[in-house]
Specification:
It is a single chain. By secondary structure, the chain is an alpha/beta fold. The chain folds into four domains: 176 residues, Rossmann fold, CATH 3.40.50; 85 residues, OB fold (Dihydrolipoamide Acetyltransferase, E2P) (Beta Barrel); 67 residues, Ubiquitin-like (UB roll) (Roll); 79 residues. Helices cover 29% and strands 18% of the residues. It has 14 helices and 17 strands. The strands form four sheets. It has a six-stranded mixed beta sheet with strand order 1-14-13-17-15-16, with helices on both faces. Strands 2-8-7-4 form a four-stranded antiparallel beta sheet, with no helix packed on it. It has a four-stranded parallel beta sheet with strand order 11-10-9-12, sandwiched between helices. A hairpin with an 8-residue loop joins β5 and β6. α4 runs parallel beside α6 and α5 crosses α8. The longest helix is centred in the last third of the chain and has 29 residues. The radius of gyration is 22 Å and the shape is globular. The chain starts with 24 loop residues before the first strand and ends with a helix.
Amino acid sequence: MNLPTFLGGVHPPEGKSLTENKPVETLRPTDVREFIYPMGLHIGAPCSPLVKKGDAVLAGQKIGDTDAFVSAPKYSAVSGTVKAVEPRMVYTGAMEMCVVVESDGKYTPAPSLHEALGRKPTPADYVKLIREAGIVGSGGACFPTHVKLSPPKDKPIKHIIVNSAECEPFLNCDNRLMIENPDEVLKGLEFVLEVFPEAEGVIAIENNKTEAIATMTSHNKNPRIKVMPLQVKYPQGAEKMLIWSVTGKEVPLVPALPADVGCIVLNTRTAWQIWAAIEKGLPVHERIITVTGDAIVEPKNLLVPLGLNMRDLIHECGGFTEEPVKVISGGPMMGIAMRSIDVPVVKGTSGILALTKKSAYLAEESACIRCGKCVEVCPMHLEPTSLDHAVRRRDYAEFEALGGMNCIECGSCAYTCPASRHLVQSYKDGKATVTANRRKAAAEAKAKAEAK
């Protein structure tokens, strides 16, 4: 049977066997230590700290927020005392304004979100409660979920898709969540379907996750929800690819969104968090992380409080087998290589991947041989080699004209390139430069208009 999929894509080694059969273990330190909460690292406006040095905080207390619509508040996962409000390094290597909490090891809870509401939430409250809970996409991009659930009135939503593909190699956090907590994931989707009564729900899972498919199917009793196995292919979980595989609809190019074709896509953990917020009144304060790779002594799936130092997770897994050449936040295809492991776990931390020199080997870059393999695998149907040449010539106008801003940075082109061209790095350079040039032009036009 031919399973649904998209055109293009690649089949990198999965690496999932290291943790796919390992149940989630809870890591909840009770000794006194720092927990660090960046005020940014989500799409939209950064939060402003709501606490200051010396303030006492409770587990589940809001410590950062903003009036901006496209944003999401921050919560402490621990009780204790605010040690500092200052810039700290995060997984990207940048310095972000952070609230630093010194834990008392007690996890004394703050009042639930339901107590602030004063009653049991109804469907009319759901989107507001999701925003208040600080829920964002848990797959890495961290787009605020309440924004997704607030489409324009002229864009009727027909499909709520739970992205359970988890196509990124090595990661198993969504897989284990479906196996161990299927009812909560399903209920989270049902809550969203109450907001969109004309929509159907789809839980899309790559076919290599047989236990998750069987578990979700057997637990699903809602006729408005179907579990859909998908062909195993990377990047099956990319939003536009997933929508094509599930519905056959093509999302137009930038700046179009899934709502333009009647779809909303949510991550598996996001669906679970929606259940936690609406059913239990819990904000986002913890998440499951896969700690894996051939440089890890004992790879595991861990449920950890946000703000915890990543070094602690690696220590919980026995440390390193040898000094790793590369430690990545996320998976090998779209993750970010970190300068330091002394950085906090955040909402978008899906995995920590530590690789030895043997597995992280990267051949020397050589000249493009114009074989066309990158064109064949590009899921966005771009011409990667032409985009790369444009950026290397600093011809950003040409890069933009060739559709470079539509690149999803999945890395399929770089993976298949026999010349080991640094293609994704080129596209990131091109997109960042085009964006900066647009902002500069807009600022200059504004200044010119104001001067008249």
